[in-house]
Amino acid sequence: MRTQVGIVGAGPAGLMLSHLLHLEGIESVVLEARSRKYVEERVRAGVLEQGTVDLMIDTGIGDRLQREGLLHHGIELSFLGRRRRVDLTELTGGKSITIYAQHEVIRDLIRARVAAGGQIIFEADQATVHDVNSASPRIRFRSPEGQACELKCDFIAGCDGWHGVCRSSIPEGALACYERTYPFAWLGILAQAAPATEELIYTYHPRGFALFSMRSPEVTRLYLQCAPEEDLANWPDDRIWEELRTRMTCADGWAPNEGEILQKGITDMRGFVVEPMQHGRLFLAGDAAHIVPPTGAKGLNLAIADVHVLARALAAFIKQGRRELLDRYSEICLRRAWKVQRFSWWMTSMLHCFPDDSGFDRRRQLAELDYVTTSRAALTSLAENYVGLPME
Ligand code: APR
Ligand code: PHB
After folding, report:
1. How far is CA 280 from CA 135, 162, 284, 319, 332, in A?
2. What's the whole-model pTM score?
3. Is 49 helix (H, G, I), strand (E, B) or coil?
4. Ligand 2 pocket: which residues have CB below 6 Å?
């Protein structure tokens, strides 16, 4: 088998890259370890930045997003029992965010790739990358039927997420890794309950952070700060609701609506960046290159920003022989990725309880929340980061 760009991973990064390359007239093959059903149903993030929404619409995959996505013009920060609104649209000159589940983005991308005759090989097992320092790198894998296969490419895109093989195939000395593990996790639930208010609420509480979000007019998404490596068995439904009520109920009586819990999961909180994001003809994008804690809702959007740069860089090289963008891929992406890492760290630090926090730290956090929600300068900074920094 041969293609121009071999892509490992059918997450948002790999599928969007394949879609953007197709629009440039460049052929790719996507290899995905899981089944189509699995990737189309996996519950992940759900907040799309303005730039991600614009890119989906501009490249012809935004119809369902525009029909079913929930357009939000603000978010709320809650502390000391009171909610304060951040008017994203007013503060950013008209930008907003859209609530649309990551697996819906995946479905739209897969449908578009299949309709355009694109090749996605699901259940491709044991992928390994070879000869990335040559002009013809290769990916070996086992087909769903168990046959040994080889995909010859001009370039390889490692879009295989945090646990993927591409990053770990690069010799250790060639990469620098920067990591911060946060001393807590998030317990997330999906509940069959109408969202009790229209916008997301980020809550600071002495017992820990809580987040109110949603997926549709019928489904609420909620998160609680919990211990790292928390065992879900310790969290029967009643305990989850009681803790959510304790942390989220406001002085005016507002609390999330309750309903059947459809899904529960634990999310680690980690910041990680690898430098550079390229080794020979292997380019890393998305979670394969960097992880952000979910507090800023940035992981998916950052993956899309990477492949937007990568698709343009590959097109400039393949179609016009210009290699400047490709040579600068890592530098361009890392510059934005570190700003996103900074924002995610800042939101996380402001809103969570750290195990060694003193009374001083808690008062400082409350002062920061008070400042951020009353200073126009601080509100503007929060808003411009939340709706998304420009994609380069
Ligand atoms: N071979 C083939 N596919 C692989 C392999 C492998 N060895 N290892 C992992 N994969 C697949 C995974 O099954 C997954 O479908 O690669 C895909 C990676 O997708 P994501 O983890 O979604 O990563 P990415 O596309 O970078 O998306 C960014 O943003 O919201 C956050 O973490 C969330 O997934 C999200 C991410
Ligand atoms: C979500 O809806 O899953 C969500 C929303 C905002 C975040 C993180 C996750 O910051």
Report:
1. 9, 20, 11, 19, 17
2. 0.97
3. coil
4. 45-47, 200, 211, 213, 221, 294-297
Q: What is the DSSP code string of 146-165?
A: S-EEEEE-SEEEE---TT-S
- The question of whether 294 is a catalytic residue gets the answer yes
pLDDT digits (tens, 9 = 90+) for 17-26: 999 999 999 9
Q: Which two tokens stand for residue 208?
A: 């820990």
**Would you call 223 a catalytic residue per the annotation?**
no
The pLDDT, as a whole number, for residue 263 is 94
Report the chain's mean pLDDT, rounded to a whole number. 97
Enter the DSSP assignment of 391. Answer: P
**Atom number in ligand 2 closest to CA 221:** 2
Terminal-to-terminal C-alpha distance of the chain: 33
Alpha helices in 219-375 (DSSP H): 237-248, 299-320, 324-327, 329-351, 359-372
pLDDT tens digits, 311-323: 999 999 999 999 9
Q: How far is the CA of 181 from the centre of ligand 1 (A)?
A: 20
Q: Looking at residue 45, what is its pLDDT?
A: 87
287 lines ligand 1 (CB under 6 A): yes
> 39: which 2 tokens?
């990737």
Nearest atom within ligand 2 for CA of residue 298 = 10
Q: State whether the beta carbon of 28 lies less than 6 angstroms from ligand 1.
A: no
Report whether 213 contacts 46 (CB < 8 A).
yes
For residue 306, which ligand has an atom nearest its CA? 1
Instruction: Tell me if residue 139 falls in helix, strand or coil.
Output: strand
CA of 383 to the centre of ligand 1 (A): 28
Nearest to 330 by CA among 186, 205, 158: 158
CA distance 335 to 347: 19
pLDDT tens across 324-345, in order? 999 999 999 999 999 999 999 9
* SS3 assignment for 186-209: EEEEEEECCCCCCCCEEECCCCCC
Q: What angle separates helix 376-386 from helix 329-351, to the nearest 10 degrees?
A: 130
Q: Give 279's strand partners.
A: 282
Atom index in ligand 1 nearest the CA of residue 141 equals 1
